[in-house]
Design brief:
This protein has about 150 residues and is an alpha/beta fold. Helices cover about 40% and strands about 15% of the residues. It is built from 7 helices and 5 strands; from the N terminus they run βαβααβαβαβαα. It has helices at about 20-25, 35-50, 55, 70-75, 85-90, 120-130, 130-140; strands spanning about 1-5, 30-35, 60-65, 80-85, 95. The chain has a 5-stranded mixed sheet with strand order 3-2-4-1-5. The chain is elongated, with a radius of gyration of 18 Å.
Length: about 150
Amino acid sequence: MVGIAVADNAPTPVLKTTEEFVAFLKATPSIAYTSSGVSGLYMTQLIEKFGLTNVLKPKTTLVNEGFSATLLREGKVAAAVQQISELKFAGAKNIVALPDAIQRRTTFTVAVVNGTTRADAAARVVRVLTSSDASTTYKRSGLLPVFK
């Protein structure tokens, strides 16, 4: 899931609707997001979709490598956009998800490939990654585990 982080002492933005998201982007004094990766490419699409390119260009910092939340923690921007798990990993605490109507979810899949010569070892890895302990860690990291 993609989220927006703001400084720990800033009010948490309310982003339940697309309109609130657009209003937040217009109002924020500065924002950082990655120039590549799922969240960065998606953010670029959203900015274009909502006609915000000219509004955001002068107050946007694109991050070529690493985490947008690093700039937030250093006080260089007022908001950072990235996958929620990455925002958390980079130390952001005041994070809100994009509205459901425009949320971008990423699915990670794990499986044992037919014909593998190490099927037993691969099955053990799958069991670990789909265990309740792993599920707890995923949730703490901002990921939503869905096991089938």
